Structure to design on (242 residues):
């Protein structure tokens, strides 16, 4: 749950791809420790917004703050964020252990510290028996656990998830949904989680930002959105039948 202070602050953010405007003067404050879900139909700009926070896109206008620091022009690696994608993005030629340690080695983290962090992440995510395997020898759910582990070992303040469960079957999706919720309880870090799945949004979020056409239509607790949608779009997408 939200504790104190603002973790991620997005101020008047606009982004265009060429002449096509995708995000329109968007504002969003996420509290420290809060779990915010960005929910909306395909193409509404969820991934674009997440990629802006991660520093993977140059924004057209606006500013992004993380823990009070203006990171608008900071490199992704300097933003204190960890990102988990839909498609795992693991290195196929490396073992799970190598996948987990690679970024830390590059960053010059000492060996014993790396070992400590991998042991902790492996325990939390229950992937200890998998450490010497290659990604090709893992199931989809196991791969996604490793992908989460890669963010976990970096000891970041903010986790960004882009539809991390949408490649999994319904049973695994339900399982990992519970695990992500438990992970958040345990770590108490800030999580911004993109999905088009209403159940994920309702069960995971402290607050849901419902997006349409590059604009946040409503930002509220799940129950508030469900019971008191601000417009027909939100009602149709998530609200109780009017
Ligand atoms: P979502 O994640 O909500 O499905 P995206 O953020 O991926 O939506 O995309 C928002 C809009 O921006 C879509 O219309 C998409 O086609 C467009 N878009 C996304 N990435 C690019 C890009 N690299 N170049 C041009 N248009 C893009
Ligand atoms: Mg997307």
């Amino acid at each position: 749950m939200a504790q104190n202070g603002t973790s991620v602050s997005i101020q008047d953010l606009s982004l265009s791809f060429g002449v096509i405007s995708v995000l329109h003067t968007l504002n969003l404050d996420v509290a420290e420790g809060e779990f915010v879900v960005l929910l909306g139909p395909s193409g509404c700009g969820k991934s674009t917004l997440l990629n802006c926070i991660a520093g993977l896109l140059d924004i057209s206008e606006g500013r992004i703050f993380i823990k009070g620091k203006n990171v608008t022009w900071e490199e992704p690696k300097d933003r204190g964020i960890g990102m988990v994608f839909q498609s795992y993005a693991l290195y196929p030629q490396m073992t799970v252990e190598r996948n987990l340690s690679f970024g830390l080695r590059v960053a010059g983290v000492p060996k014993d510290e790396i070992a400590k962090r991998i042991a902790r992440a492996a325990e939390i995510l229950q992937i200890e028996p998998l450490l010497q395997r290659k990604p090709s020898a893992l199931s989809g759910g196991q791969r996604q656990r490793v992908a989460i582990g890669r963010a976990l070992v970096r000891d970041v303040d903010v986790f960004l998830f882009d539809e991390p469960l949408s490649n999994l079957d319904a049973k695994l999706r339900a399982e990992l949904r519970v695990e992500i919720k438990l992970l958040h309880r345990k770590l108490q870090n800030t999580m911004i989680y993109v999905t088009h799945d209403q159940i994920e949004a309702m069960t995971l979020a402290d607050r849901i930002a419902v997006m349409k056409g590059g604009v946040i239509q409503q930002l509220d607790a799940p129950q508030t959105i469900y019971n008191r949608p601000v417009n027909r779009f939100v009602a149709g997408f998530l609200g109780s039948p009017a």
